[in-house]
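Quick one, tokens below. Sequence please?
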């Protein structure tokens, strides 16, 4: 994951699709707590360390009703045979 030039990139190891779903939600919720409201949305993207492909995405948006960050949808996770072999 890359959080831009202000935040170092670190590898996070997960071993199942359920664990990846939880990690995406926890990390994106933490980001939302500190993220300024000057944007309309942000997306946390997880990549496989072995094959480099996208294995998960969680997008958040600013709610028109509350003005706070809310999940745009549930985290999207693809956990196919290549990811399982890598884990």
């Amino acid at each position: 994951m890359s959080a831009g030039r202000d935040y170092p990139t670190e590898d996070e190891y997960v071993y199942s699709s359920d664990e990846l779903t939880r990690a995406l939600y926890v990390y994106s919720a933490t980001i939302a707590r500190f993220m300024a409201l000057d944007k309309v949305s942000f997306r946390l993207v997880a990549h496989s360390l072995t094959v480099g492909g996208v294995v998960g995405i969680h997008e958040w948006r600013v709610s028109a009703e509350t003005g706070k960050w809310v999940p745009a949808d549930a985290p999207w996770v693809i956990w196919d045979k290549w990811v399982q072999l890598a884990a």
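The CA atoms of residues 44 and 59 lie 6 Å apart. The chain has a mean pLDDT of 83.
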